[in-house]
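Q: Hi! Curious about what DUF5009 domain-containing protein looks like structurally. Here's the sequence.
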Amino acid sequence: MTTLKPRLLSLDVFRGATVAAMILVNNPGSWGHIYPPLEHAEWNGCTPTDLIFPFFLYIVGVAIAFAFDSKKEDQAQHSKLILRAFKRGLILFFLGFFLALFPAFDFSTVRIFGVLQRIGIVFFICAVLFIKTSTKTQLRTLLFVLILYWVLMTLVPVPGVGYPNLDKETNLAAWLDRLIITEQHTWKAARTWDPEGILSTLPAIGTGILGMLAGTWLRRKDKTESEKIAWMFSLGFISALLGQIWGLAFPINKSLWTSSYVLYAGGLATMMLALLYWMIDVQGYKRYTKPFVAYGVNAITVFFMSAIIVKVMSRIKIDLDGEQVGLQTWLYKSFFTPYLSDLNASLAWAVTFVLFWLLILWPMYKKNIIIKV
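A: Let's find out. The predicted structure is below.
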């Protein structure tokens, strides 16, 4: 029989590796010089970078199962648990909103939705689903959400366009974002659609549900470790395969968060968690886990603060060959580009940034300083 600990080390490692990868791909030395695997797909398709965000939402779902499973049995506690989830979701949303505002605080053009906002919404809705429904209902909800989104995106004519389509600016999700949050408050790189917009949050919730189902499975005491791992690998493979097959008709697309993308990324996340669980929690291979755990236990904190630091550095101006540039640009051009090729200099800066935060997170981890959001 399985003896479960209240916290999975493999989950912390998975979370830490994912947020470190987030920081790596979000902070190249130059956006014009990036190795292809560290870039998002132009539209349809999936690069390793496109897996990072769904992996994180999947991890959120797994964590929900471990945080609430033993408490949901007491129905008298449901209101308290839901209120706690609402507060956390709200904090995450407003942390993301603050990032969008900082440092200009221009409310007229601030982006309403974003990464942390989506995490907050998905966390709250998934937490309520987990607390109030059974595993079977959660599975049915997942299937319903994925099919509903597919129907909406591929069969419903887009107002003003006249036909359903999956193009960047004329799909139903883009139309809804422009209608409700307006172009001034969408993603600044496009201003006509938002990759974390309203309608695409629906299948993103499905990614969280997949994580909850995996977490519930890992907590089962009537299954051996071998059974758990074998089923996770098998179902993860099937999910990824189904995502690829569905992708022939409903393309895998991160920006639209298509249903095929949910199955594909969720399947890969399930296999990755199964592998880490087997290596770390079952086999006890923990030698190189601590740096990832240091990132994992303060994942939201480091994501938020790293974004703040980048924005602060852009406001600090330093003279470089007669031109006023931001501190980051000065550091990059002074210590990286003179010694490395453009691609390697850009990657070296990103790796250095990840290691810089590890130097901060490591003593926090050693002193058990965990900033809970």
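A: A fun detail: The radius of gyration is 21 Å.
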